[in-house]
Design a protein that fits this description.
alpha/beta, 8-stranded parallel barrel
């Protein structure tokens, strides 16, 4: 019989898998966005349904000394018109961020830009966003989705980057590496050699064991290995994690090796570990918060639930309370 710890780990893994599988159910997404009872919990992770709703949160973060990167929620687009419309929304956001005087920094997903239709379409749409970023002096980060899109995402990054880098004004394009994937050591080496601004995260998708580490401890170990490589040789690396042990390790190594506090940044998600975000900023570290907004919040929200099964009981308690129970 499995021990209590092993049993609870198995139950957590089963819960995580179920939530990640549900995150890909489009019909549920459509339903969920119409069910207001879940909204208070959703609003913990999502800054609003419109940019106007999200802007006050972005300004509050700026006033607290935190940087931001704005994500217009949306993914798994299968229609060319929808992908073009998503790119159009980003152009509007870049203009609005520049006009408002907040951080000009956005994150977008290849599948939102039409990768599911064709790589050419996604490349064209991301290229348009990068073009506007060049005009407004903004930074564009291409998020990394599941392993089936890694090669295409890296190829798109390579194709769109020159448009930003070849112009003055601080525009650039970065990508994301996921510690969970076995291929990431090799990918990171190539990106460091190319001078790419990399965001390192653990990886939020359910992946087959043939391409990803099965064990959380292995993912954490890989994160530490990649993080140290990035800190020592990367170009303005972004360490995206809320894992206090890994954050402490980065601080320790940076201090011991004389890596300046502004040579790298920590990144965290809106609504998660705000205390830690502020502590690090107060200690002089650069911290950037990933701020998602939009109506298409369901898959993003489900991944946040899957990361921490305790969030599910919190959600259920809230739903019960909202029903007056
Ligand atoms: P871990 O999951 O071990 O959590 C460490 C601690 O953080 C937990 O003990 C808890 O305290 C807190 N925590 C973490 N998640 C929480 C949650 N949902 N609710 C409440 N507390 C939570 N992934 C990806 O595949 N592609 C991408 O492009 C990105 N981009 C990205 C940008 C940024 C800025 C961040 C911070 C993260 C991503 N991710 C991502 C998500 C990432 O892969 C990962 O799933 C989450 O960051 C959770 O992993 P942690 O590193 O926080 O560690």
């Amino acid at each position: 019989m499995p021990s209590r710890t092993a049993a609870s780990e198995l139950a957590e893994e089963a819960m995580r898998s179920t939530l990640l599988a549900l995150s890909q159910r489009k019909a549920l997404g459509g339903l969920a966005t119409r069910v207001p009872v879940t909204r208070p919990m959703v609003r913990r992770f999502i800054a609003g349904e419109t940019l106007d709703e999200a802007l006050p949160a972005i300004r509050r973060l700026r006033d607290a000394g935190l940087g931001t990167t704005v994500d217009v929620l949306g993914e798994a687009v299968t229609d060319e018109g929808d992908a073009r419309a998503a790119a159009e929304r980003y152009l509007g956001v870049l203009d609005a961020l520049a006009a408002d005087g907040v951080d000009r920094n956005v994150s977008l997903k290849p599948s939102q830009m039409g990768l599911g239709v064709s790589e050419t379409l996604a490349c064209e749409n991301i290229g348009r966003v990068v073009g506007r970023a060049v005009e407004t002096g903004a930074f564009v980060r291409i998020d990394m989705e599941d392993h089936a899109s890694t090669d295409a995402t890296l190829a798109i990054w390579e194709a769109v980057r020159p448009a930003a880098r070849d112009r003055a004004g601080g525009a650039d394009v970065g990508v994301v590496i996921q510690a969970a994937l076995r291929r990431s050591d090799a990918d990171l080496d190539a990106l460091i050699a190319a001078g790419c601004r990399v965001r390192l995260c653990k990886g939020a998708y359910k992946e087959p064991h043939s391409v990803a580490y099965a064990d959380k401890a292995e993912v954490d170990e890989a994160y530490e290995r990649l993080m140290l490589r990035l800190l020592r040789a990367g170009s303005q690396p972004a360490l995206a994690t809320h894992d206090v042990r890994l954050i402490r390790r980065a601080v320790e190594v940076a201090r011991a090796e004389g890596i300046a506090r502004d040579a790298f940044e920590f990144q965290m998600l809106f609504g998660i570990r705000r205390d830690l975000q502020e502590q690090l900023a107060a200690a002089g570290y650069r911290v950037r918060v990933y701020v998602p907004f939009g109506a298409q919040w369901y898959p993003y929200f489900m991944r946040r639930l899957a990361e921490r099964p305790a969030n599910v009981s919190f959600l259920l308690r809230n739903m019960w309370r909202d029903r007056g129970g």
